[in-house]
Amino acid sequence: MQTTALSPDELRTEFSGTAGYLAACSTGLPSRATRAAVIADLDARPDLHHYAAVAERCRAHFARIVSTSPERVAVGSQTSVMVGMLAASLPDGATVLCPEGEFSSLVLPFVHVGRGIRVRSVPLAGLAAAIDPTVDLVAFSIVQSATGEVADAAAIVASARRNGTRTLCDATQAAGWLPVDAGMFDALVCHTYKWLCTPRGLTFLALTEDYAATLTPIHAGWYAGEDPWAACYGADASLAASARRFDVSPAWQATVGAEPALALFADADASALHERVTGLAARFRERLGLPEPVRPTPIVTWPDSEGLDLCRLTTAGVVASGRRGNARLAFHVFNDDGDVDLAVRALLS
Predict the structure, then answer these.
(1) pTM of the prediction?
(2) Contacts for 175 with CB less than 8 Å, ≥ 6 apart
(3) Once rounded to an integer, what is the mean pLDDT over residues 133-153?
(4) Least C-beta-crowded within 10 Å: which of 133, 177, 178, 269?
C-alpha cells in the first residue's frame, strides 16, 4: 500500500514524449503504465471476472481522489448519461440553474428532458447570488472548460444549502490537479480522460446517500445488480444497495487503461500537484503580460478570434486548443518550464 504521497517530480517520470503537449484540458496523455496495461490486455485472452475486478479498483481509486467512499460512487461511460439520470429524477416543473457558457454535457440533459423543467443561466461569478428557494438544482463545473475559471464552490454550496437547493458539480476539468471533496456536493460527476489521463470511456458519479435515495436508476442493467453475475437475466434481480445500482456496464478496455492512471493520481500529493501546475501557468501569464485569475488555474486563455496565435503555437510544435474565440493552453504534471519557454517563444517571435 502507498504510504507516502507521490511528488509532482515522481509523477512526471511516469510519462514520456510530452514536450509541447499543452492540451490536458482536451485530453490527457497516457502514462507508461497505462500504455503497458492496454497492450497487455490486447495480448491476453478476455477474462470478464478480471475486468470486473479492475473496474472495482478504478471505483476505489476515484473515491480516494475525491475524498469519498467507493460505496457512494457509480461507474459510467459518459458525463451526459449520468447527468441524464439526474435530470430524469427531477420533479416536473423543476428549475435548474447553470453558469452561462457551461459545457453542454452538463446542461443539455436538463434542457431536453421535458416535463416542464426550466433551465436558467447566469454568469459564473453571480451563480451563488442567483440561487433562491425556487431553484431545485444548481449544476456547474468547478473549473470551466472554455476559460479555465475556477468557481467559488464554497459560496455556491453555502447558498444552495440556505435555499434548500441540490448541488451538482462537474469535476472533469478539475480532478487530477485541483483537490476536490465530493462530500461538499449532492452529486459530483467526472469524466476521467482529461486531467486524470485515462482512456476515454470512464465516468464516475459520486452521490450523497440522501440524494441517491431520491434518484431512479433508469439505466439499470446487469452490472447494477447486487450480484452482477446473478443479474444477467430476467426482471427479478435485486439492485445494489450502494451507488452501484446506478452503474452503467463498464467499458472493459477503458478501465484496464484507466486503473494505473487513477492509482497514480490517487497516490499523488494533491496540494503539491496543484502548486506545480498553477505555477507553470502563472509563469506563462507573467511572460505574456496576461492577467492572473481570481483563483489559480492551470488553464490559460486569451482572445484569438482568427486563430493566429493557435497557428503560431501549432507551427512551433505546441499542441493547444481553441475555444469560443480564445486560444487555450493547459499545464499539467507532465509539463515543465521548457514547455512554458516553447509556448512563449512561439507567441513572441
Answers:
(1) 0.95
(2) 62, 65, 66, 190, 192, 195, 196, 265
(3) 97
(4) 133
- Say yes or no to pLDDT of 3 above 80: no
> For a pLDDT cut of 90, what percent of the chain falls above it?
94
Distance CA 77, CA 285 (A): 35
Task: Give ∠ CA 246-248-252 in degrees, rounded to 5.
Answer: 140
Segment 244-261 mean pLDDT: 96
- The three-state (H, E, C) secondary structure of 47-78, written as one string: CHHHHHHHHHHHHHHHHHHCCCCHHHEEEECC
Average pLDDT, the chain: 95
**Is a pLDDT exceeding 70 seen at residue 271?**
yes
State whether residue 205 is helix, strand or coil: strand
Specify the CATH class of 8-30+269-348 in words.
alpha beta
Distance CA 251, CA 203 (A): 10
Q: What Cα–Cα distance (Å) separates residue 151 from each residue in 100, 175, 303? A: 12, 14, 21
Grid cell listed for 274 = 496543484
- Region 153-179: what's the mean pLDDT? 98
CATH number for 40-266: choose from 3.40.640.10, 3.30.70.360, 3.40.50.300, 3.30.2000.30: 3.40.640.10
State how far the Cα of 137 lies from the Cα of 192, in Å rounded to an integer. Answer: 24
- Report the candidate in 60, 16, 19 with the shortest Cα–Cα distance to residue 35: 16
* Calpha distance 148→124 (Å, rounded): 12
* 59-114 residue pLDDT tens: 999 999 999 999 999 999 999 999 999 999 999 999 999 999 999 999 999 999 88
Q: Map out the domains of the chain as residue ranges.
A: 8-30+269-348, 40-266
Query: Which of 97, 158, 151 has the alpha carbon at shortest distance from 122?
Result: 97
Sign of CA dihedral 240, 248, 82, 65: positive
- β partners of residue 141: 170
CA nearest neighbour of 237 among 250, 248, 249, 226: 226
> Which SS3 state, helix, strand or coil, does residue 339 take?
helix
Contact predicate 187/205, CB 8 Å: yes
pLDDT band at residue 2 under the 50/70/90 scheme: low
From the list 179, 192, 190, 193, the residue with the least C-alpha distance to 150 is: 179
